[in-house]
Amino acid sequence: MGKVLAIGDIHTKIWIVEKVSKVINNYDRIIFCGDYADDFSASPQDTLKTWKSLRDLQIKYKNKVSLVLGNHDYIYVYDTPSIQTGYNQITHTLINAPENKNLKDWLASLPIIIKIDGVAYSHAGIANEWSGAPMTLTVYGMTLALFGFDLAALLHTRVCLKYLGIPLPIPVMKSGMRCGA
Fold it and tell me: What is the domain class of 4-122 according to CATH?
């Protein structure tokens, strides 16, 4: 494959996208691994600008730049009751505005997992326990809805609950996870 640069969790730090664009020719592949939104100090407009910069970089270098969706991006594209830290209702309103339809469609088109030269890239890990449907976890009478790919948290929670001797109420779900080529 050659030299690969994988970057995760830029959280509206557009300067990271700008730096990558300056060194892009030093790498054979660039992979952004999700969570492009939700920096507490950034404005909703900054989030849209970050998404647009990533989209433009991917379009310009379509055979070199790949992106996967992160949970902080997922919640703006799909209606879920899951709200991540840093979530901004104004960002949600802006991405759903008619003038941003193309940007939202682009975000929605991003895969959750991509496989490049035998290596899988995702934002939060890979498990065969999520089919795309919501899962619930009930602990001490509190029900949590797990959407998207809180898989790392889900798997960590399962390990902790098992260690504590608490029964695991999460059913194993089967079927295909949406994957990129």
Answer: alpha beta
